[in-house]
Amino acid sequence: MKDIINILPDNVANQIAAGEVVQRPASVVKELLENAIDANATLIKINIKDAGKTLIQVIDNGIGMSKNDASICFDRHTTSKISKADDLFNIKSKGFRGEALASISAVSHVNLITKQPGVELATEIEVHGSDLKHNKSTVSEIGTKISVKNLFFNIPARRNFLKSNNVEFRHIVNEFIRVSLAHPEVKFIFINDGSEIYNLPNSNFKKRIVNLFGLKTSEKLVPVSENTEILKIDGYIFKPQYAKKTRGEQFFFVNNRFIKSPYLNHAINSAFEGLIDSKYNPSYFLNLDVDTNTIDINIHPTKTEIKFEDEHSVYAILRSSVKHSLGQYNISPVLDFDRDKSLDVPYNYNDNNQPASVGIDVNTNYNPFDAKYVKIDSFEKHMNSLEFSSESNELKEFDFEDINKEVSLNHTIQLNRKYIINKTKSGLIIVNQERAHQRILYEKYLKSVTSNNFSSQKLLNPIEIQFNKQEMGILISNKNLLVQFGLEFDSESDKIIIKTIPSFIDYEKLKLSFENLIFNIQNEIPDNSFSESDLISKIMSKTLSIKNGKSLDVKEQQYLINALFACKETMISPFNKKTFVKIDFSEIENMFK
Ligand code: ADP
Ligand code: MG
User: Fold this and answer.
1) Are residues 185 and 282 both part of a single domain?
2) Which of 15, 322, 275 is nearest to 152 (CA)?
3) 171 and 289 in one domain?
4) pLDDT tens-place string over residues 436-448
5) Which residue lies with its CA nearest to atom 13 of ligand 1?
6) 519 shares a domain with 386
7) Rg (CA), the chain
8) Pocket of ligand 1 (CB under 6 A)
């Protein structure tokens, strides 16, 4: 028999390893930032182009590499951080696997310039997909500058599977936030497509949180501190009223390393039990310090999961110290924060004549519009507009599916606050309320955007809403898209000043709508829209649709069904999900056989 086993050439092995380590541009950012931290840098600059697809550059003022080290750092298993197996149980650095640079250089064009203190010349190395292009001496500052260009240039499948720039950029910012939170002692500058989006001076943990998430964050924080033999906790939680429906800011750092832990997250949730609605998520920024030999950080290739020797105790200590902080805060609301209620208002009205209530609810008496407009809740408003549009002539031109003709609208039942059941001639249909409403809104918006027929309200008194830098970045980069939709705003460093809103956005829920909007732009919207009008209509339909879980009265249920079946496409949501299923009498008969 012939031998059939080959030893894979290094460049192939590196590409395979890269599959684990380098999933997307953000993975490169994480590895390069961590290397800079390990090199004791006190200033780290990051420069991103095209959401990292074109360029990821990290410049540090750390210890640099010698000429020899620089020549081998792109080989696999080259690390200065461990030398023997025992070291694995006492890891204080971020890296230790020695495969990040090998993996990154296997799937991109990398240029490295590095210089140690006390030597005259720097070394410059260029590697394209594991092939050394040059290795020469050059002139440079102390420290290391790594530029990673054209990621996945040699793996088109991976490159094509990258998500939209918005999504990839969000991942990058998330990694940046994690590393910069874990190291407030390091100064960071982050430049995206030529503009500086973060400039974080070296500071302490609390100031770093505020610098990252906005000035208003300061008053939301409650300190948590605990010191036991097995675990030291130090950090902050958000007061319960700032819990978010979307997963808010949730950060665990174990020995300065960001980790994900559903188990420890559960400990926090249970400490908040009774204080926030179960649909809301608490925000937290917690540093846990444990003895390095009581954890195993080796279980995950990208090192975001670790194993604790005694995770039950860690859970219990965490839960009780968060509870303790919450208790203290409830007894004495001032704790170490002088609380000014007016600061809790999400909007700064220019003619701020009334203090608003705490949390995201605003004073309902104040509004620049017609009083009756504000009283209708957003769902009714959608419904009213639907009623109007479904009577219009345009809709009559639509080709209805056969099923559409069958719906008789007299018998509807809402099931589980999610499904609407409706009897038809041949059986029954079960409609998913959220998806159906997305479809209805999507078609309505698409029609208005493409025919430029939007009614928007110019606000007499522009409204200011504060956002953190990440959120601001998203809003600004999508400004042109939003203008098409009747949403016009100016921006300052940490807030937008809204001048015009589409008439169907509920004025009172503006802040919430914007939060959802940002969330949807970041997370939910696939990058396969035909056009900008299509994209914005999808985003807005997702943002403003009624949600599953909302109880609807019979009139609302019937509007929804009526309007769904007046749509051009009735069967699927704008996100390709079924809007309804149909069960024929014959199927029901079969069930009883
Ligand atoms: P690891 O971080 O697991 O050791 P990497 O592939 O990320 O593996 O890096 C390989 C080695 O290259 C590191 O151990 C370190 O010695 C060196 N190195 C990488 N980046 C830097 C940097 N920014 N400054 C100094 N040395 C670096
Ligand atoms: Mg590394």
Assistant:
1) no
2) 15
3) no
4) 999 999 888 888 8
5) 79
6) yes
7) 28
8) 31, 35-36, 39, 60, 62-65, 73, 78-81, 95-102, 144
